[in-house]
What we know:
- This protein is α+β, with helices and mostly antiparallel strands.
- It contains 15 helices and 30 strands.
- It has five domains: about 20-195, Rossmann fold (3-Layer(aba) Sandwich); about 205-290, Elongation Factor Tu (Ef-tu), domain 3 (Beta Barrel), CATH 2.40.30; about 310-380, 2-Layer Sandwich (Alpha-Beta Plaits); about 385-495, Alpha-Beta Plaits (2-Layer Sandwich); about 495-610, Alpha-Beta Plaits (2-Layer Sandwich), CATH 3.30.70.2570.
- Helix content is about 25%, strand content about 30%.
- The two termini are about 55 Å apart.
Amino acid sequence: MFMSPVNSTDELMRTDHIRNFSIIAHIDHGKSTLADRLIQLTGTLTERELQDQVLDSMDLEREKGVTIKASAVRMIYDASDGETYELNLIDTPGHVDFSYEVSRALKACEGAVLVVDASQGVEAQTLANLYQAMELDLEIIPVINKIDLISARTDEVAQEIEDLLGVDALDIPRVSAKEGTNVEQVLEAIVAQIPPPQGDPDAPLQALIFDSHYDPYKGVIAYVRVFNGRFRKTDLLRLMSTEADVNPIEIGVFSPRMVPVDELAAGDVGYVATGLKTVQECRVGDTFTLAKNPAPEPLPGFQPMKPMVFAGIYPADADDYNLLRDALEKLQLNDASLIFEPETSQALGFGFRCGFLGLFHMEIIQERLEREYDLDLVFTAPSVEYQVTLTDGSEIVIDSPAELPEPNFIAEIREPWVQIDIITPTEYIGTVMDLVINRRGEFKAQDYLDARRVQLSYYIPLTEILVDFYNELKARTRGYASLDYHFHEYRPAKMVKLDLLVAGQPVDALSVIVHEDQVYTKGQKLVSKMKKVIPRQQFDVAIQAAVGSRIISRANVKALRKNVLAKCYGGDVSRKRKLLEKQKKGKKRMKMIGSVQVPQEAFMAVLQLDDDK
């Protein structure tokens, strides 16, 4: 069910009856389930078409229970005041790695529904998303979800929200999206509280691109919010930043499938099938205008997301290199935040250096490559971007240990620091502080949200929270703590490159950049891990950790030894010695020409260096 475009005489009334809103929340507080209920209540899909998490179309989104891509849907709602309204919902992710998707979605809205779990209360990402919405001056409608849970603390959570937003606790809708309880109240609140879009349908066209995905038949599909003007499928459109002209193949709305329409006008949220072949040609944040009557200036866009985590991806079979390149290119069409460039490693051959928004983003990309493209891959240890000042005064930026110059050429290295906000029950304050301080964290602030929960803020090097920090935090707080982080600044640091040598040969893909204070402990752990995973050879294999030319840790993988004396029962000792000497010479010759194969597990073992178990 959808509303077809209305004639221009009804345009004013039509704009008054549009509501553009987003649903924001901490991960797993029930955004997608609430979206399902809204779609069901408005009759947008039939009962047969409806399925759980209908807006989460990717298999990974369903399995992990998280929204990864923002998605949009147009709903028609007959309100209690007897009027019919067009509601444009843009569903957003809740995970910290995908906060850039949230910022894009909010740009296209006038209001946001803030969903808070009745048992968990306000959490770190709740606040992060809320502040983003408030910065954009959006109307906030708080909603308490999951009131059907035995552990629900509905009144306490309502009081938390009142203290946070200043709204009356009694006016906050209390719903169970799973059971469908009181969901109608949310629709009524959206209609009553969120302002209609402002915009002049007769002004020159300005349509903001807030997301995009790639379709093999229609090219890049740009998700647009029209702020001013109107356009039809037959109009020639122009992208204002690149000045490229686009003849749309199709325009339409999300219902939630793509439904073609004749016209999109001020206030509408819809899509433009551009026919373009790469997402780079149609960048998120750009503005569409009409080629024959262009707008004087583009809408304020937003900064492209900067990757924070970098890792090497190599095919386990060198013959799959071209398949991996094609797979990454296709993934990039649907995920503009993924960047990659070719890289070579002595140990792993040809591969790619990829940039990700965070560890979870990296995990999603890895799973999509392995599942959707059936690739067997090796990932190197994740790294961050360092700023390096050389002795000649020049500056370089590196994201791989292999790129770090020799120590005598380096004047200063600066590493990225982030601000982390952890919300935890008060009984876990000690163990959380211990975790952060042991990872070079600096205390910033401590705020009690209520008698039982506290928000701890720290500055910490990004590299310290890359691997297993989140898992450790969850383990120490029995799953109750929540985490949000954002970039703070670059600070000078005493960083060095820790190399791993196997049989005297450096394995470049196993090199890591570590802080000077952690060199000996990290070196020892790395060598111990490698000793367990590198198989025994016919000769002794030395595994060494080194900084420059200084060896700081060493272990030997003992040789496999055939018992050449097995048939010597008694007899002259010189005969035994002769056999042993012959074996010794053979092993020496083998060691000169033999090479040690480093197994895939070794590259994964680097990721568990901080695991004390």
